[in-house]
Design a protein that fits this description.
By secondary structure, the protein is α+β, with helices and mostly antiparallel strands. It contains 6 helices and 8 strands. β1 and β2 form a beta hairpin. The longest helix is centred in the C-terminal third of the chain and has 23 residues. It binds zinc ion. The site of zinc ion (ZN) has 6 residues, from loops. This is Fuculose phosphate aldolase.
């Protein structure tokens, strides 16, 4: 499957599973000094591989494609430029995770699946959508984790592959819902540091196998 095809497949999956609504959210994959990214303001059900754009990471210029690239293009290019190991990004405004982002509250480790992301899902400081500082804050807050919340905005999930980044975007939404529910039941029981260490260790072998 071509990169463009995979991007369309995952973008549509984000829409079908409710991680994004309308034309919000975007998906990208790094290829050397370039990246492929979804277009701006195109309904997901109309998207085809011809709509995916190839963008130069350094100049931000469109190399291939006739559409306008996602308004979050500077965030994607700057994340790739600042973090060599990141190969794919899924950005959503999924509801429960975005509630935590708006409340400026990290998602706590209430379920072991958080180990696929990190010790928690932290919140990066607010910066205007589409701005270059958004990427700086996201990368800084991300550290070694695989996902981060953007204050008053949404979610960034990253990975070696688009499938990894997508799985993490989905996990972050699930974790946010579970944390939200735990708050509603007034009984939030995060894993202990030791339990978290164990889970993180487990995920290392899980993802490398
Ligand atoms: Zn956004």
């Amino acid at each position: 499957m071509s990169i463009q095809n995979e991007i369309v497949k995952i973008a549509k999956q984000c829409y079908e599973t409710g991680l994004v609504v309308g034309t919000a959210g975007n998906v990208s994959v790094r290829e050397g000094d370039m990246m492929y990214i979804t277009p701006s303001a195109l309904p997901y059900n109309e998207m085809t591989e011809e709509d995916v754009l190839k963008v130069d990471l350094t100049t931000g210029k469109v190399i291939e494609g006739n559409r306008k690239p996602s308004s979050e293009t500077p965030m994607h290019t700057n994340i790739y430029l600042q973090k060599e190991e990141i190969k794919a990004i899924v950005h959503t405004h999924s509801t429960y995770a975005t509630i935590f982002a708006c409340a400026h509250k990290a998602i706590p480790p209430v379920h072991y699946v958080i180990a696929d992301i990190g010790r928690e899902v932290s919140v990066a400081p607010y910066a205007r959508y589409g701005s270059e500082s958004l990427a700086g804050y996201a990368v800084e807050t991300l550290g070694d984790a695989n996902g981060v919340l953007l204050a008053n905005h949404g979610v960034v999930a990253v990975g070696d592959t688009l499938a990894d980044a997508y799985r993490r975007a989905e996990a972050i939404e699930e974790l946010a819902l579970l944390s939200y529910g735990s708050h509603v039941l007034n009984s939030v029981n995060p894993l202990t540091e030791e339990e978290l260490d164990e889970a993180l260790e487990g995920f290392k072998t899980y993802t490398s196998n």
